[in-house]
Amino acid sequence: MELNFTKDCISFEKELNQLDQFVIDFTTILNALDIKYVIISGYVAILFGRNRASEDIDLFIEKIDFSKFQTLWNVLEKQFDCIITNTVDEAYHQYLKEDFALRFARKGEVIPNMEIKFCKDPLDFLSLQEKKQVVLNKHSLFISPLELQVSFKLFLGTQKDIEDARYLFALFKDHLNQSLLHSFSRKLKIEEELKRYLP
Amino acid sequence: MKLPDIDLEELKKSKEKNFKERLEFIDFYANWVKKTPNKVWSKQQKTIIDK
User: Fold this and answer.
1) Which of A49, A53, A163 sits opposite B33 (nearest CB)?
2) Residue range A135-193, pLDDT digits in tens
3) Can you list the residues of chain A whose pLDDT is less than 70?
4) Other C-beta atoms within 10 Å of A116: how many?
């Protein structure tokens, strides 16, 4: 695996699969509108080679006002459908503002879909603030810090999540900030899981 | 249909063993990805994901 690592950025090239292309198309719009976001889901493991499918990609965006959301909605509508609601008012006021997720899929499709939420708790804000840039085939996108990604996957604790954590840990062991990883694990009270699953 | 007797303890052990084997495979796969050119692993990944 050829990865170019710097403190704030990982860049690499790969043969894009449909999920990668979906993420690139969606995040191109967020980048163009200068909306801060961070991808936090199992897609992070898939991006770096984990061999499994996923029906959705989880993404937090910064809190934006209705006017900016309307702009985002209008641009997204050219390529994507919101599969939860088809009105921009409801999408903003009854979903995003109430901490419910919106899901966007390519027109006429349901999966894969991008599940977007506003940041709401301290870990969400930390993910956004400390996001890591990935340059994938010259496209820029942002993921949560790998130490938090690994810890949170262990916290979620399903078999699939533990496998994702194990994969990311095995792949990036030499690049992870071990002290930060242990701090997250203490905060999330997953020290036992860390010992058991990430030897 | 007559259902067989099921030893739940045995089944639980088998489930744990299977999970342990999966984690070992993930280590193996991650090490393989690390040693393999992006073009090769991502082509194989694309075959699975785009199926």
Assistant:
1) A49
2) 999 999 999 999 999 999 999 999 999 999 999 999 999 999 999 999 999 999 999 99
3) none
4) 24
Given a cut of 90, is residue B36 above it in pLDDT? Answer: yes
Residues in chain A whose Cβ is within 8 Å of chain B: 1-2, 12-19, 46, 48-49, 51-53, 159, 162-163, 166-167, 170-171, 197
Contact A61, A115 (CB under 8 A): no
Give chain B's radius of gyration (CA, Å).
Answer: 18
Judged by CB atoms closer than 8 Å, whether chains meet at B30 and A167 is answered as yes
pTM attached to this predicted model: 0.94
Find the helix or strand (DSSP H, E) in which A73 lies: helix A66-76
What's the complex ipTM? 0.91
Contacts of A69 (CB under 8 A, 6+ apart): A88, A91, A92, A96
Domain limits, CATH 3.30.460, in chain A: 4-144
CATH of region A4-144: 3.30.460
